[in-house]
Design brief:
Layout: E1 3-8, H1 15-24, E2 29-33, H2 34-39, H3 52-66, E3 71-75, H4 81-91, E4 97-103, H5 106-114, H6 124-136, E5 142-145, H7 151-164
């Protein structure tokens, strides 16, 4: 059976690591990185439409489902229910969709983000994003505290929850 797992959370919380490991646990699976979608943009002015990350993510999810992929993982930052609702307006799929917000204290995510050498530092954006997510945490799906679990335990938690379909956001 096909399903979509959305991994939400601030930079440095482990979305990419969890997503990649989660994808390895299932046949015909894909992990769509929000960072990769954002990297398509080379230069942006105020004259172009926004929210393309959500639209493109939804489109990629549908394309992989149409191709027969069993598990599609989308890791992105949804700071509030408003962004999640907008994304779901674009998504429109008839398979179970699960939203997990990976969470850790600000000090932990700042330390993890600072240790990333493969990309430019996000600086104060990390704090701003974390604060916005913290304000809306109760509206952001099932919360998993990544500072209290190993990477493998986070993946196991997501797999267990999604296999029981207790946390599906849609009626599929």
């Amino acid at each position: 059976m096909q399903q979509v797992i959305i991994l939400n959370g601030p930079a440095g919380v482990g979305k990419t690591s969890v997503g990649k490991l989660l994808a390895k646990e299932s046949e015909n699976s894909v992990c769509i990185s929000g960072d990769a979608i954002k990297d398509f943009i080379v230069r942006k002015t105020d004259t172009v439409k926004g929210r393309l990350g959500y639209k493109n993510g939804a489109s990629l999810i549908r394309n992989y489902l149409d191709a027969g992929y069993k598990l599609v993982i989308f890791e992105y930052v949804f700071p509030s229910k408003k962004q999640i609702d907008y994304f779901f307006e674009e998504l429109k799929v008839d398979v179970p969709v699960f939203l997990y917000t990976l969470w850790a204290p600000l000090e932990v995510v700042k330390e993890r983000e600072a240790s990333r050498v493969e990309r430019a530092s996000l600086g104060e954006q990390v704090t701003k994003c974390h604060q916005e997510l913290a304000t809306n945490l109760n509206d952001l799906g099932h919360i998993i505290h990544t500072d209290q679990l190993t990477l493998e335990e986070v993946v196991k938690t997501v797999l267990n929850e999604s296999s029981q379909k207790r946390t599906a956001l849609n009626n599929a």
